[in-house]
Design brief:
Layout (H helix, E strand, L loop, with lengths): L1 E5 L2 E5 L3 E2 L4 H14 L2 E5 L5 E2 L1 H16 L4 E4 L3 H10 L21
Parallel strand pairs: 2-4, 3-5, 4-6
Antiparallel strand pairs: 1-2
Helix pairs in contact: 1-2
Length: 109
């Protein structure tokens, strides 16, 4: 996992394995970002494996960022990410026209 700064928004690359065995490092990083008042951009391009812990982490982080008025965006989600959200029963925005090459933002709630 890596984090790069782009102004007040930090780009997070969670790596290729976003399953239970690696979920803690992503969760800790996102908590640190929200507590610091930074926005986050999650680059999903390298994700090869994702499971329910990734979905739970992303949904929880999105709510935390939204509650503080901070931007939270996911970029370049691959089929592995879309599949994890579908298996969890969580809808992706624009699910009917989901384009894995463009970025998307989770809708509020």
């Amino acid at each position: 996992m890596s984090i790069e700064s782009e102004g007040n928004i930090l780009k997070v690359d969670p790596g290729s394995d976003c399953t239970l065995r690696n979920s803690r490092s992503l969760a800790v990083s996102l908590v640190e970002l929200v507590n610091a008042g930074s926005g986050a951009e999650i680059d999903c391009a390298a994700i090869e494996q994702a499971d329910i812990t990734f979905v739970q982490t992303i949904v929880s982080a999105h709510r935390s960022f939204a509650a503080r008025g901070l931007p939270f965006t996911m970029l370049a989600a691959k089929d592995s990410v879309r599949s994890a959200f579908e298996r969890a029963g969580v809808s992706l925005p624009d699910a009917g026209s989901f384009d894995t090459s463009r970025h998307f933002e989770l809708s509020g709630n």
